[in-house]
Amino acid sequence: MASQLLKACHTRYKIRYHFVWIVKYRKDLIHGKLQQYLGEVIRGIGERYWFEIDTLATDGNHIHIFCGAAPRHSPAKIAAILKGVSAKKVFEQFPDLREKELWGGEFWGDGYYVRTVGDEVTEIVIREYINTQGKKLHKPFAQLKLF
User: Fold this and answer.
1) Could you report the per-residue pLDDT of 114-128, keeping only the tens digit for each?
2) What is the C-alpha separation between 42 and 78, in angstroms, rounded?
3) Of 9, 58, 63, 113, whose CA is between 20 and 30 Å from 32?
4) Is residue 91 a contact partner of residue 107, using CB atoms and an 8 Å limit?
């Protein structure tokens, strides 16, 4: 999906972010039905808040999200919305997770990684990196270089 110049009232923009955050305690929980549900929830949040969710992937204990948003949304606000709403929905759908896996706590760990995507790190590099999450690569310890 090629990103394009978007518009809002009196504004033209093309702002793209790569977010990463962990499941609390780095628990390896995002698999199967939970992974599918979480993808649906995040895409739904994107529609509701007008975030352009481009690519999602996980290794089970963390999630990568490549998205765009209007300049009225700071990266901190985007992360807070995505993490907060998705955690609430996950606990509603999978109530046993809170007590059995997370000891009555939160779904997501504190903090996150965010990077804007520009000339140095292209959209293609980010998509490739996200799409290889959870897949064994042919070379041991091979990792795409972002920086």
Assistant:
1) 999 876 667 788 888
2) 11
3) 113
4) yes
Six-digit token pair at 24? 């609390």
Count other Cβ atoms within 10 Å, centred on residue 18: 23
Task: Encode pLDDT of 81-113 as tens digits.
Answer: 999 999 999 999 999 999 899 988 899 999 999
Domains of the chain: 10-131 (3.30.70.1290)
pTM, whole model, 2 decimals? Answer: 0.81
Residue matched to tokens 């606000």 = 77
Whose structure tokens read 């955690």? 87
Q: Give the span between the Cα atoms of 129 and 142, in whole angstroms.
A: 11
What contacts 43, CB < 8 A, 6 or more positions away?
53, 56
Q: What is the CA radius of gyration of the chain?
A: 16
Amino acid at 26: R
Q: Which of 111, 136, 116 shows the shortest CA–CA distance to 126?
A: 116
Edge-first strand listing for the sheet containing 16-22: 52-58, 62-68, 16-22, 113-116
How many CA atoms are closer than 13 Å to the CA of 55, on its beta-carbon side?
A: 23
